[in-house]
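Page 37, continued from 36.
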């Protein structure tokens, strides 16, 4: 399975630690996490719960895994997952990394998943999981989930029909003034393998249409590759309202068709 590597500027991924902690803790919530329930199922006397900061949607999602037994949250040795989209006549996975102990709260395991399509008429998402407990017992199951459509993911194909998935990673909620501007890029090697791509040139152009054939851009820097499929720049929105940002990728001197993100910028 492919892994999404961390980058120093992105605290969301820096939180993925790969050392399990052995303890039982009480079921109190950490207000800093501000999580909402996504799905929960019983397995062999345990309750496996999935939580997140928001409802799941296409693009990047932080997933928090919680295991409870007799009312207590317990920390397992490890959790491995495999997100799957069932489209009836075919199945495929999506870019993701494996869960590790969450830095914000060591009662949770955390991972990031980039859903490349919504659930619904086209098919349904679920996450297969296998959990190794501290006593070496292994429990497993399948967690059904709902994934909504969002503006934060698009894709483009080259002349050889190779697809590149472009995820708007930051700002998650654009506001007027200075924002970090971060994208992720993955490709598809197979229906089960979606590796990050680090060697693409990215050109962006933010634009606000003022109507009547007039409009303007704003100060920005083009995102450049860092590591793990991340491309980082910045943008300074001059005003709130509806903006578009066009993205053009150049891969091995081949400039791919332009794609456009349309979104709302809130007043700071």
């Amino acid at each position: 399975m492919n892994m999404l590597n961390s980058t120093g500027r992105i605290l969301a991924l820096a939180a993925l630690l790969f050392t399990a902690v052995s303890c039982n803790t009480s079921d109190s919530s950490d207000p800093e996490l501000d999580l909402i329930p996504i799905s929960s199922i019983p397995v062999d006397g345990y309750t496996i719960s999935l939580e997140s900061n928001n409802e799941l949607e296409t693009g990047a999602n932080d997933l928090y895994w919680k295991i409870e037994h007799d009312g207590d949250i317990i920390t397992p040795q490890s959790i491995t997952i495999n997100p799957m989209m069932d489209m009836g006549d075919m199945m495929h996975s999506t870019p993701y990394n494996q869960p590790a102990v969450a830095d914000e709260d060591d009662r949770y395991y955390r991972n990031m998943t980039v859903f490349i399509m919504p659930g619904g008429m086209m098919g349904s998402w679920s996450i297969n999981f296998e959990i190794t407990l501290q006593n070496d017992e292994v429990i497993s199951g399948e967690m059904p989930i709902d994934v909504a459509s969002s503006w934060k993911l698009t894709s483009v194909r080259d002349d050889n029909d190779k697809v590149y998935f472009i995820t708007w990673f930051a700002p998650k909620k654009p506001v007027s003034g200075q924002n970090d501007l971060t994208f992720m890029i993955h490709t598809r090697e197979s229906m089960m393998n979606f590796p990050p791509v680090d060697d693409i040139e990215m050109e962006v152009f933010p634009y606000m249409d003022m109507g009547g054939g007039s409009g303007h851009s704003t100060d920005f820097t083009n995102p450049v590759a860092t590591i793990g499929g991340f491309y980082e720049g910045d943008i300074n929105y001059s005003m709130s309202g509806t903006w578009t940002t066009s993205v053009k990728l150049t891969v091995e001197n081949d400039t791919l068709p332009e794609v456009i993100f349309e979104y709302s910028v809130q007043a700071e």
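Residues 2 and 57 are 20 Å apart (CA to CA). Flag for discussion at group meeting. Residues 11-145 form a domain with the Immunoglobulin-like fold (CATH 2.60.40).
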